[in-house]
Design a protein that fits this description.
heterodimer, A: about 400 residues, mainly alpha, 18 helices, about 75% helix, B: alpha+beta, Cytochrome Bc1 Complex, Chain D, domain 2, 14 helices, about 45% helix
Chain lengths: ~400, ~375
């Protein structure tokens, strides 16, 4: 690394203790609440467990996607902050832990696991070769293995590069990223079909995988943006972070949340227009008995409000505004998952401490993992050949 | 050329030097200066202390205008002006309007932004600028970076400006302009221009006419007309009776359709049918409308049998004959429904209600031509 970089890169890497504490408190409190939730109402706890699980999947798998995206797009503006994404991806193994209670309670979640129902139901019978416990489990195992594999490869090359500054690691990661993108596209769609769409096994929407994908990507980018902006404010990463860096986060977030609205509306409008009874019941269930308020709130908080928060040019570079929008979108992703999962089980919206337990736990876990990782590794990929261009990035 | 000084210009070799120059010119207090570079130089807005552009508000206003306009238009068409039930949905089905509203909002914001930029910022239709077509502009649009300080600036002093730019290392020059050339206003109503417009209009209409009415019907563009589908009255080998058009199952009665029981029995129709309508203003207006549409071509506007068909067709009789005046309503109804000799049946064109309304209107016409003493008082 040359002199110039040495002077501006900040060695500081331990997170502010307030953030670390917050992470531990959330995790512990979340764990206690999860315990109480499972004891008092196991049914409800499993449903929320699914929300927490899919949320963590959104962030961890989405983080792997963003690593790959940076490599394959040759992006430089995000290189100085890539470690944030890499640390977030380290939550990937936790998915398995959150999945264990789900596998133990599959009968309470998935109608298609009841063999008696399946044999007497023509539609479910027809889907049984795909939707059965064995192939479901195998699919999950394969997906986890693939995601872990790519995560470990990216991570290894990126971290080794800190020591030897060798460009070849970047080229290797680019090749892996090229393979990962299509693999990711297929696996994340199947993940959404398996864990979310199959809650109502009679229903189908071919766009559902894309819908979950973009929701998860908006959420991941929000987490990244929040962490980057708040750490940068405290002097992490490097000296002289410009508005152009912030603007890039704001603009990408703006684009992605618009794409979410586009996909969400496309899914709704085609089903609404055709109005076929085998499709429309999913939306009808979400437009009665109080669910219409949740649906409207989703449109409001996942699109309209953040859209106008980010629409003007200065607002995309305003740090406070970026953080607020990011937090809003993280909450909106929880709402989105709640909206996908809960109407299957509850005729009208429910809300109590059960619904808070898993968001607390997952957010706490993400912060804790992030803190541990940032303590161990460099906050900035100092060996990356794109780093200098990333630091000097101007729009 | 009556030349006056427009500005003192200087060219520099690199983006860094032009940024420095821009900052120096700004710091010297000049307001009316501009920078020209072959490609966007980052950080120039700041170096020149340019304020944020206000064009974004124009775009926002245009987008809102487009969205509101389109939503209103779609609502008016679908719910007020031409209400049609589509897919069993309410007339005002907002989700169907979303895509087009979005498209129009984007279109309006793009087009209006460009138009407003051209008209207000570039002062269209004035198409000339003193810097156009100067050696300076040639240089800065290929490989040099230039700054130009206008003579209109309050602090302008040719000697000082030259010194400043020279001290910055620039290659200094001056740009002159002729007033009449720069403030030249295109004559919109010049005959040549109007002729050109007319020529373009004629050529494009002729092209459009040929395209839509001739070329599209020639091979290979006529593929749209050869489609794999059966049309009414075509032979279909799929059905054993070879009819493409299917007949309803025997005994089927269409919704809102009641078979006419007095076919070929005018006397019964006259005896048993009773006009269910009252001659209100509304009914008479409906009757007039339908009479003028369906009956007047033969029977004349006032039913006197004096239409332009007279002499070219078995003369349609007057509806003011004693015969028709003496008929009960049921008989006229029978003629409309069943037809009479050469007069065809109108049962498919005119609904039952409308037939009764027409009859009431005919009664009004009859009364008008044969008013009783008491009507005149």
């Amino acid at each position: 690394m040359n002199e110039h970089l040495n002077n501006i890169i900040v060695a500081k890497k331990e997170l502010p203790s307030s953030l670390v504490k917050l992470g531990w408190v959330l995790t512990m409190l979340g764990l206690v609440l999860v315990g109480i939730s499972y004891i008092t109402d196991a049914q409800r706890a499993v449903q929320n467990n699914l929300i927490g699980f899919t949320f963590l999947a959104s962030v961890s798998v989405g983080a792997v996607f963003f690593i790959a995206l940076e490599y394959i797009a040759g992006a430089v503006w995000s290189t100085p902050f890539r470690r944030v994404t890499e640390f977030l991806a380290a939550t990937l193994p936790l998915l398995i832990i959150l999945a264990i209670p789900l596998f133990m309670n599959m009968h309470n979640l998935f109608e298609w696991t009841h063999t008696d129902v399946v044999t007497s139901d023509k539609v479910l019978h027809g889907k049984a070769s795909y939707l059965n416990v064995n192939s479901f489990t195998i699919r999950f195992a394969v997906m986890m293995a693939i995601w872990m594999l790519f995560y470990l490869v990216f991570r290894k090359h990126s971290f080794v590069q800190d020591l030897n500054h060798d460009q070849k690691h970047t080229s290797i990661n680019i090749k892996f990223a090229a393979v990962f993108i299509p693999v990711y596209a297929i696996s994340i769609s199947l993940f959404a079909f398996d864990w979310l769409m199959s809650l109502t096994p009679h229903w189908f929407s071919t766009i559902f995988g894309v819908y979950y994908f973009i929701g998860s990507i908006v959420c991941t980018l929000s987490v990244i943006t929040y962490l980057v902006v708040s750490l940068a404010e405290k002097g992490y990463f490097f000296k002289g972070i410009t508005e152009d860096h912030y603007y890039s986060f704001g603009a990408l977030l703006f684009a992605l949340l618009s794409f979410w609205a586009y996909i969400a509306f496309s899914q709704f409008m085609l089903i609404w227009y055709a109005n076929l009874p085998e499709e429309n019941f999913w939306f009808i269930a979400r437009w009665k008995n109080g669910w219409e308020y949740i649906s409207s709130a989703l449109a409001l908080f996942h699109f309209w409000i953040p859209y106008f928060m980010l629409v003007s040019r200065p607002s995309k570079m305003n740090k406070g505004n970026l953080k607020r929008t990011a937090l809003l979108l993280i909450a909106a992703h929880f709402l989105d998952l709640y909206w996908m999962v809960m109407p299957t089980f509850h005729a009208s919206p429910v809300f109590s401490f059960h619904e808070l337990a898993f968001p607390m736990l997952t957010l706490g876990l993400i912060i804790v993992v992030f803190a541990i990782q940032s303590k161990k590794y460099n906050m900035v990929p100092i060996g990356d050949p794109k780093l200098e261009r990333g630091i000097d990035f101007r729009l | 050329m009556a030349n006056s000084l427009y500005s003192i210009v200087a060219t520099f070799e690199s983006p860094d030097t032009i940024i420095k120059a821009a900052k120096a010119v700004r710091d010297a207090g000049y307001k009316k200066f501009d920078v020209h570079t072959p490609f966007p130089v980052h950080g120039m807005d700041k170096a020149m202390s340019l304020p944020e552009t206000k064009l974004g508000f124009v775009t926002l206003a245009a987008a809102i205008l487009g969205a509101v306009g389109m939503i209103s238009f779609a609502s008016w068409v679908a719910a007020v002006d031409y209400p049609l039930v589509i897919g069993g949905k309410p007339y005002w089905s907002w989700p169907a309007f979303v895509p087009v509203t979005y498209e129009i909002a984007v279109l309006a914001s793009v087009v209006l932004t460009v138009v407003i930029m051209i008209v207000f910022f570039f002062k269209f239709p004035n198409i000339s600028h003193p810097l156009h077509d100067t050696p300076y502009m040639k240089k800065v649009s290929s490989d040099k970076f230039g700054v130009s300080i206008q003579a209109q600036d309050e602090l302008f002093n040719e000697k000082k400006v030259r010194e400043l730019l020279q001290s910055l290392g620039g290659n200094v020059d001056a740009v002159y302009y002729s007033d009449e050339f720069i403030n030249f206003k295109p004559q919109l109503f010049e005959p040549k221009f109007l002729l050109l417009l007319a020529g373009i209009a004629m050529a494009s209409s002729a092209g459009g006419y040929l395209l839509w009415n001739k070329i599209l019907f020639l091979p290979p563009y006529d593929w749209m007309m050869e489609q794999q589908k059966v049309k009414p009255q075509m032979v279909s080998n799929f059905y054993s009776d070879k009819f493409a058009m299917r007949q309803p199952v025997e005994g089927t009665v269409a919704r809102g359709y009641i078979p006419y029981p007095y076919k070929d029995k005018p006397d019964d129709a006259g005896k048993y049918l009773v006009n269910p309508l009252l001659p209100t203003k509304q009914v008479l207006e409906l009757g007039k409308k339908k009479f003028l549409t369906f009956c007047s071509p033969c029977h004349g506007n006032f039913g006197q049998g004096d239409s332009r068909l007279r002499g070219q067709f078995p003369n349609p009789p007057s509806l003011h004959s004693d015969k028709v005046r003496g008929w009960p309503d049921g008989n006229i109804y029978h003629v409309i429904t069943n037809g009479q000799n050469v007069m065809p049946s109108y049962q498919y064109q005119v609904s039952r209600e409308e037939r009764w309304a027409i009859i009431l209107y005919i009664r009004t016409l009859q009364r008008a031509l044969n008013a009783k003493e008491s009507d005149l008082q």
